[in-house]
Amino acid sequence: MFVEGAGSAEDLVADRAIKEYAFSRDAQWRMINLSENATYLVEDPGTGTGGILRVHREGYHDAQAIESELDWLDALHEENIVDASKVIRTADGRRIVTTEVSGRTRHAVLFETMGGLEPDEAGICANDFHTLGAVTARLHSHSKRWRKPAGFARFSWDWTNTLGEAPRWGRWQDAVGIGTNEIATLEPAVELIHRRLERYGQGPDRFGLVHADLRLANLLVDADQVNVIDFDDCGFGWFLYDFGTAVSFIEHDSALPRWQEAWLSGYRTVAELSDEDEDMLATFVMLRRMLLVAWMGSHSHSQESRTKSSSYAAGTCELATRYLDSDGSSLERTDFAR
């Protein structure tokens, strides 16, 4: 039993939300992850049911934006595009539970538990990225042709809202480990990212609704079944930004060129990519890396920030130097140093 005042605001939201579903009084829940949102595993021995409850971070999405995410998930299911998270409705048919905690509006959504395990980051192989590339292409192809319902509203991952005047995850300049020397290295790289994105443009074949966090950690693989989870960051951005997200936190690995080739190979089994598209991949990796610098600075509670932020700035400067040396076309080492 949850006692108000004994846990976090997220715990209180979770406790209230679970009561809205058709669980028995024996239902139990526990937090399994705290990152952008708080995620809880729900198990009900009384009914043999359960799910994954996502308690949304305060102020990140309003109810309309969350409903829009769920609209896309419904469409993906109906058209059999990918195996993605399925929403469990409340006892009275709602997809979202909304409650007030300390005078603030909070939202929660319950999803069915999906089978499979995420690929082990310590043992990533090229085939993992081939699979991810094909999944990404299926999502992009659907996004380009899907007629969105009236009222569909998701935020944008354009320049203004990434590294521009209104950065969604905060200013990279204010992040942990960023000082005068780091800024001197990173600012030219950010300027080059901006120039290349402006030249690339935001035509409908290049910019649209994307998952925006489509990395291996958000795939659950069970034999031949590949389940896609965590559409919480989905919004309007460059399609190839999804490759930048695919290598989040591992952009520095010397295997990046092999992973990129495998991702491209998988993607091209479903949809075409031009040489110009391929030439932009390093830019989207660097864009994502800079966003993650900012994200860890504004999400000090996250596991990634606690374990990686101390060295992440230095690694980002090394990548930025490679990026600048190649005029934005590559992040590969040129000295073969290890």
In brief:
With 338 residues, the protein is of the alpha+beta class. It has two domains: 9-111, 2-Layer Sandwich (Phosphorylase Kinase, domain 1), CATH 3.30.200.20; 121-325, Aminoglycoside 3'-phosphotransferase, Chain: A, domain 2 (Alpha-Beta Complex), CATH 3.90.1200. The protein has helices spanning 9-18, 63-78, 126-145, 159-162, 180-200, 241-246, 256-268, 275-279, 281-298, 303-325, and strands at 28-34, 38-44, 49-55, 83-84, 87-88, 97-101, 104-111, 207-210, 219-222, 225-228, 235-238.
Describe how the helices and strands are arranged.
Layout: H1 9-18, E1 28-34, E2 38-44, E3 49-55, H2 63-78, E4 83-84, E5 87-88, E6 97-101, E7 104-111, H3 126-145, H4 159-162, H5 180-200, E8 207-210, E9 219-222, E10 225-228, E11 235-238, H6 241-246, H7 256-268, H8 275-279, H9 281-298, H10 303-325
Parallel strand pairs: 4-10
Antiparallel strand pairs: 1-2, 2-3, 3-7, 5-7, 6-7, 8-11, 9-10
Overview of the structural elements:
The chain has helices spanning 9-18, 63-78, 126-145, 159-162, 180-200, 241-246, 256-268, 275-279, 281-298, 303-325; strands spanning 28-34, 38-44, 49-55, 83-84, 87-88, 97-101, 104-111, 207-210, 219-222, 225-228, 235-238. The radius of gyration is 20 Å and the shape is globular. A hairpin with a 3-residue loop joins strand 1 (28-34) and strand 2 (38-44). The chain is of the alpha+beta class and 338 residues long. One of its GO terms (molecular function) is protein kinase activity. It comes from Rhodococcus erythropolis. InterPro entries: Aminoglycoside_PTrfase (IPR002575), Kinase-like_dom_sf (IPR011009), Prot_kinase_dom (IPR000719), Pseudomonas-type_ThrB (IPR050249).
